[in-house]
């Protein structure tokens, strides 16, 4: 099955799973020539914080969520890994509720697969994913791959 578009959902807690997200994405995108959409979702507060931390001058220039996402360290690390692997990608930034925004972006880009990160759960919580990952898995218009950080 050919995957034309793969959405990799990036959030504030994905810094510890960059290598795993890249590895899984490169594996899925492979030599098939898929386009990867790196979608970074910010809540309104996260977006305002990112504007400050990344030192955008919002008085001198119009700044879009795409601009902010492209300068975010997690996205920059992933794009370096994708460049090295020859994976075509584009960066999209979205402001909104994490789960709903990921699902909406998957629909907007007509994704064939979504990769979403999550954390290791306690033994009693293993049957339940994080709320964002669970919302995406239940509502996405395509298959979803759950990627957690390397276990040590």
From TrEMBL:
Residues 4-148 form the UspA domain. SUPFAM superfamilies: Adenine nucleotide alpha hydrolases-like (SSF52402). InterPro entries: Rossmann-like_a/b/a_fold, Universal_stress_UspA, UspA. Belongs to the universal stress protein A family. This is Nucleotide-binding universal stress protein, UspA family. It comes from Halogranum gelatinilyticum. The lineage of its organism: Archaea, Methanobacteriati, Methanobacteriota, Stenosarchaea group, Halobacteria.
């Amino acid at each position: 099955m050919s995957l034309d578009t793969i959405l990799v959902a990036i959030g504030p807690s994905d810094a510890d799973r960059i290598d795993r997200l890249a590895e899984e994405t490169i594996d899925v995108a492979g030599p098939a020539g898929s386009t990867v959409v790196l979608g970074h979702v910010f809540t309104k507060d996260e977006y305002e914080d990112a504007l400050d931390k990344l030192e955008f001058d919002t008085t001198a220039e119009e700044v879009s969520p795409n601009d902010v996402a492209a300068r975010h360290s997690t996205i920059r690390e992933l794009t370096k890994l994708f460049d090295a692997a020859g994976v075509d990608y584009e960066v999209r930034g979205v402001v909104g509720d994490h789960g709903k925004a990921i699902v909406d972006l998957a629909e907007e880009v007509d994704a064939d697969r979504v990769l979403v990160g999550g954390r290791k759960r306690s033994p009693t919580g293993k049957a339940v994913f994080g709320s964002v990952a669970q919302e995406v898995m239940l509502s996405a218009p395509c298959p979803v791959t759950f990627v957690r950080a390397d276990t040590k």
